[in-house]
Amino acid sequence: MLVRIRALCPRCRGFHASARRTHLVGAPHPVSNLRPIIYNDTAPMRSTAATHPYSLTEFEGDTQEYQWKIQRQQLDAYNHAFWADSNSRFQAAKAAVLESLPESCTAEDREFVLSEFYRRWVVQEMPRQKEYDAEWRKQNWKSISLGARLAFDKFAARISHPFSSSKIKNE
What we know:
It contains three helices and two strands, in the order αββαα. The protein is mostly helical.
């Protein structure tokens, strides 16, 4: 239904004053098989009052927003590193098993050996997977709660100052 409405009214976005922001999804990584997210966040505006290159007031905006952006990128990097390592170790172990088979091995024997390898791999990796899963969930919930707090703060600022500009400055 949404697609049909968009097809009927392709210029509907022109009625909105806000800029359109979308995140892009890249091609799958050859080792981790994850599709990287290319975040399309608005670039922070430089303050003209900054006199030092490392000034805390160099950029406008809330530090919570910067923290949230960094946190979600760290979570993506953690996820990518885990799966790249896991998949490369899996492929190396699988190649070692296949190389150990004699050339006279039948397809049925090969399938049996591979199914045993898969079973042992899952059992072997279960503690590592559980540790990763617990850490990923913890970091993900931190990111979600920080993003929700940030969204609530922005909403509260818009409600408390309905006629001010879209950027509320901390003066």
